[in-house]
Amino acid sequence: MKNLLLVFVLILSTTTANCQKNYLEESNEDSARRMKWFTDAKYGMFIHFGLYSQLGGVWQGDTIKEYAEWIQAHADITPQEYAMLTHTFNPTEFDADLIVSTAKKAGMKYLVVTTKHHEGFCLWDSKYTDFDIANTPFKRDIIKELADACRKYDIHFGTYYSIIDWHHPSQERNLDNSNAARWSNVRMKTGKKQQYITYMKNQIKELIENYDTEIFVFPAAYYLAAKFEAHKRRGGTDLRQSHDFEDIIYILDNCSELLDNIKASKETVKTYLVAARKLHFTHRVFILFVFVS
User: Fold this and answer.
1) CB of 204 within 8 A of CB of 255?
2) What's the rounded Cα separation, in Å, for the pair 204 and 216?
3) Over the chain (293 residues), what is each successive 10-residue block's mean pLDDT?
4) Distance between CA 243 and CA 227 in Å, rounded?
5) Where are the beta strands (DSSP E) in the chain?
6) Would you tell me how many other CB atoms lie within 10 Å of the CB of residue 2?
């Protein structure tokens, strides 16, 4: 799978309930002015952290030679067995102040952390699942600690939220594939899509309201890459012409709907409009960036 990159840059701008700007019609010049802080930043920190961090790439004595955060897929660990890691997750030496102050000294301008990677484990105390940090021996809210430290050191704070969720009951391994592809190309269970949309909306709303995130990153790289490869084998060239693209667009549309309606739940109006700009199929990584200003 090569050369597939779909980047949505979504800009959320401060506005009023009665005056919304259509960012799909925004000029390149206006977009550049609004994005100037990020363009100028150039240098930031992206943190992967989750249950997989305590494994160090080793499962049951075997070294798994792939990305550490994908160990569940490459070692083919069932969600039930993987969830047992919550009983031993206790990174007592985690120091958000040290991390962010080090980033500041290095000249970094923003920080993004994986609030929930594909494993489905949440690094904050979520009202919508027990599969979170509050139900570990550690208990501390890592997202709050990092957000507070970023404000202290004047670093823009961002959050990554995985669309793929190997723990949520709405999704399952795709047994039509083999090895790790079963996990990268997960299957949405029949009749469960809306259940996951609701769950996702509630959690994204938590992250915005509780942690005042400025950047959202929604990844779905392997899902789209697998779909695109299958679409090409059928003679297609544009993934957007494939019905296989509908699930991911449905989810992203619901992200947009959620962010568009947050005005109803916040006294301080910050984030409403989502505008998708510039689709580029040039790499195998898919990232949806949402900038909240």
Assistant:
1) yes
2) 9
3) 33 35 66 78 90 93 90 93 96 95 94 95 98 97 98 94 91 81 81 89 88 78 54 56 47 51 35 27 32 39
4) 10
5) 6-12, 44-47, 58-59, 62-63, 110-116, 156-161, 171-172, 187-188, 215-219, 286-292
6) 8
Joined tokens for residue 122 = 């949440």
Residues 64 and 71: beta-carbon distance below 8 Å: yes
Q: CA-to-CA distance for 201 and 275, rounded, in angstroms?
A: 18
For residues 57, 108, 133 and 249, what is the CA-based torsion angle, rounded to 10 degrees?
-80
Spatial distance between the Cα atoms of 248 and 207, rounded to a whole number of angstroms: 21
Alpha-carbon torsion angle 84, 86, 87, 88, nearest 10: 110
pTM above 0.85, yes or no: no
- The two beta strands, 215-219 and 286-292, are antiparallel
> Cα torsion at 201, 205, 206, 208 (round to 10°)?
140
206: left (phi over 0), alpha (psi -120 to 50) or beta: alpha
Tokens describing residue 139: 């208990």
